Amino acid sequence: MDEVIGLFPTPLMRAPACVPEAIVQGLAAHFSALATEENNSSANLVHTRMLQPGDSPLLVEAAGLITPKLVEFGALLFGERLGWSIKEMWVNVLDNGGHQAMHNHANSFISGVVYLTPADPSSRTVFMKSPGGVDFSFKNDHAGVATGPYNAEKWISPAPSPGDLVLFPSYLMHAVPPNAGARRITLALNAIPAGLDSWGYAIRFAG
Fold it and tell me: Which of 6, 37, 165, 184 could cysteine-pair with 94, CB 3.0–4.6 Å?
């Protein structure tokens, strides 16, 4: 019998209700007021400055809940349960009409999002294949095409609830389409392992 094998899939972890309601509400209330950094592609999106978990007891509690999930997810990426630390965290406040342009995260290995408010269906996070290079390319794209996991160019994440955590490799391109609903608040993060070892050639990271 013929067999189709998905080679080298990209993992993405969803951890429902990872952060409990009391912490979620505290984070949203406290840090939304501190989100004053303008986004360079959307007038209706603002961010806090880059934060460290130690900057707030709320962030310490959130980081304590997220870090075990980083260890689990990191084992999928690197084949070993390594020590992980959150390098930076920040809060995004996306108002009606705002969007987040396609991007990925440099200088980290795992990135994540904790949803602090409900998200309108229009503003679910979208993950995309890398745009690729500048060579000519061919596509088969018309009304009769059946889109599936091997030919799709984007994947729209399921509707999140407040407290849900999503983790993904930092290189993965992602975006948020224009928000047609109420204010959407998220806590984003980047994480790094303590180090990596390739047959004795070790590299260490500090965050």
Answer: 184
Per-residue CA distances from 185 to 19, 100, 180, 196 (Å): 14, 12, 14, 33
Alpha helix (H) residue ranges in 19-81: 21-32, 57-78
- Provide the token pair at 113: 């999002």
Closest CA to 115 of 92, 89, 84, 87: 92
Sheet of strand 84-94, all strands in order from the earlier edge strand to the far edge: 13-15, 165-169, 110-115, 184-193, 84-94, 45-47, 37-38
At residue 139, the pLDDT reads 87
Q: What is the rounded CA–CA span in Å between residue 48 and residue 39?
A: 10
Q: Which tokens belong to 83?
A: 């020590």
Sites in the chain below the pLDDT cut of 50: none
- Spell out the residues 6+ positions from residue 97 whose beta carbon is closer than 8 angstroms to its own: 44, 178, 179, 180
Q: d(Cα 24, Cα 9) in Å, to the nearest integer? A: 31
Whether the predicted model's global pTM rises above the 0.90 cut = yes
pLDDT in tens, 106-135: 999 999 999 999 999 999 999 999 877 767
Q: Which residues pair with 196 in a beta bridge?
A: 203
Q: Which residue(s) pair with 204 in the sheet?
A: 195
Q: What is the CA radius of gyration of the chain?
A: 18
